[in-house]
Amino acid sequence: MADEITTTPAAAAPSERSSERPSGPRGPRPGGPGGPGGPGGPGGRKFFRRKKVCKFCTEKIDAISYRDVRLLQGFVAERGKIVPRRLTGVCTTHQRKLSAAIKQARNIALLPFAARY
Q1: CA angle, 69 as apex, 63 and 75 as ends, to 5°?
Q2: pLDDT digit string (tens) for 86-113?
Q3: How many CB atoms lie under 10 A from the CB of residue 89?
Q4: C-beta atoms surrounding 94 within 10 Å
Q5: Do the Cβ atoms of 112 and 106 come closer than 8 Å?
Q6: Distance (Å, rounded) from C-alpha 115 to C-alpha 77?
Q7: pTM score, two decimals?
Q8: Residues pairing with 76 in the sheet
Q9: What is the pLDDT of residues 33-64, one digit of tens each?
Q10: I need a surface site. Which of 2, 35, 85, 111 has the fewest CB within 10 A?
């Protein structure tokens, strides 16, 4: 009995903690790439998003007028912000012309700068 080494709870605590949480990098997360919902998994691709096409290029509109308020309102959010390209699908050249026209229309009070409260 004297040969037996008794460990105290304080001495055993660090080894238990290390087994609970590894100190190195963590393993893969569930639901990440390669998981059950990832590409190539059993679920496959859930939906197909069509590539957005520039409205002005398809309709062959070259000049974007600041006076065409109905057209410009479609590219201004409810709060008065200009909607970005990635949401509207407008090409870069037309987005630049569009934002210049929106800013002109705002300056002469055809479009609001911000939403009313």
Answers
A1: 80
A2: 999 999 999 999 999 999 999 999 999 9
A3: 14
A4: 19
A5: yes
A6: 9
A7: 0.58
A8: 82
A9: 555 555 555 666 677 777 788 999 999 988 99
A10: 2
